[in-house]
Design goal:
The chain is of the alpha/beta class. The chain is built from 15 helices and 7 strands. The longest helix is centred in the last third of the chain and has 23 residues. The N and C termini lie far apart (about 50 Å). Belongs to the histidine acid phosphatase family.
């Protein structure tokens, strides 16, 4: 029923360049000492912009009456649970053993953007990550299978994870990027634009980000159990490519990459540097429940190789720091899970470290230094007044 969209999404997933499996002799020598992990939320209902492109608005509103616009669906909740299972398998006692089976606040930091879909995603994921052990079971009913796990969220207007909506310089850079792209990479879609305008009433030349908005509408409809419109089926392969190009506009310039991913990169470098100096660092697993643009931004500033297409709902990207048991040297490994519960995670490579299983931390730090952005500088750059 959904074969058209399925093929396009599969092509997007496999286009991410994955590294080769790492040999056991290398893995056995490496101890994970730090991980920064970003997930995209689970499947959601359409947002208002997407709904405005639909010719079935009333039908979609009726289908989303419970969740509301942008709400996490039941499919999305199941996806979130798979994210938590992945985190437990990779970072828990049966995996890299960076966290305990017990929830211990000194071991983990959890942050979400202040959106219902991301907050609900991390809540469900934590249910899978930390099913309560006997010591943390708090009653004879639900307390035996679930426990509360805290997370942090800050106002959208002050959140560096929402750089694309709250940072005025980024907005200006995006405006220029859109104008340039219409004259360059989007010229190949000149024949598609009049068709889409006739079908949706919107001018995609004025805002090429509408390609991604329309493609996301299709994905949301599929998540709600609807087929995509008949008119869209023959256009979908090209629409998917246009959507990917639209997504790439968020990382068109180095300054856009720095604003988008520089704070996360800076925090990773600071924690890793402290570890390299033998300092005590708590919360060595740091989780961020966020959006596709956050995954892309961190991948960009970390110089991860690959054709970075739009992350699927439930995608997970991690920057992991390892310490060699034999030499004491630190190395960085990027890991990508295309969609929790559907595909296995794979190691990626970093530009400049293509032939290495783990990129030397010192080399990684040198190669990425131009993108570092301390959080207080983000607020200054973006003109955000905050007491955070």
């Amino acid at each position: 029923m959904f074969q058209y969209l399925g093929v396009v999404c599969l092509l997007a997933i496999v286009s991410v360049s994955c590294g080769n499996p790492i040999g056991n002799e290398v893995v056995d020598d490496q101890q994970l000492v730090l991980a920064f992990v970003i997930n995209r939320h689970g499947e959601r209902t359409p947002d208002s912009d997407e709904l405005s492109l639909s010719n079935e608005q009333e039908k979609l509103r009726n289908l989303t009456a419970i969740e509301g616009l942008e709400g996490l669906t039941n499919v999305g909740k199941r996806r979130a649970y798979q994210i938590g299972k992945f985190l437990r398998q990779r970072y828990g006692s049966q995996g890299q053993d960076i966290i305990s089976n017990l929830y211990l606040q000194d071991e983990i930091a959890i942050r979400s953007t202040d959106k219902e879909r991301t907050k609900m995603t991390i809540q469900v994921a934590m249910a899978a990550l930390y099913p309560p052990e006997a010591e943390q079971q708090w009653d004879e009913g639900v307390g035996k299978v679930w426990q509360p796990v805290p997370y942090t969220a800050v106002p959208l207007s002050e959140d560096y994870l929402r750089y694309y909506s709250n940072c005025a310089p980024f907005t200006a850079l995006m405006k220029a990027a859109k104008q340039q792209s219409v004259l360059q990479e989007f010229r190949q879609f000149d024949d598609l634009i009049p068709k889409l305008k006739a079908l949706t009433g919107r001018n995609f030349t004025e805002d090429p980000l509408l390609f991604e908005t329309l493609f996301d509408l299709m994905r949301s409809q599929v998540g709600l159990g609807l087929d995509i419109p008949e008119w869209a089926k023959p256009l979908l392969p090209r629409l998917g490519e246009a959507a990917r190009l639209a997504y790439r506009l968020y990382f068109r310039t180095d300054e856009m990459k720095k604003i988008g991913g520089g704070v996360l990169l800076n925090n990773f470098i600071e924690a890793a540097t402290a570890i390299s100096k033998g300092k005590s660092v708590s919360k060595r697993l740091r989780l961020f429940s966020a959006h596709d643009f956050n995954i892309g931004a961190l991948m960009e500033v970390a110089r991860v190789r690959g054709d970075q297409s739009i992350p699927e709902y439930g995608a997970v990207f991690a920057l992991e720091l390892y310490k060699s048991r034999s030499t004491g040297e630190l190395g960085v490994l990027p890991v990508y899970l295309p969609q929790a519960g559907e595909f296995p995670a794979s190691p990626l490579h970093i530009y400049g470290c293509e032939t290495e299983d783990f990129c030397s931390f010192e080399k990684f730090k040198e190669m990425t230094k131009e993108f570092l952005l301390p959080e207080n500088e983000f607020y200054t750059t973006c003109g955000i007044k905050t007491e955070l």
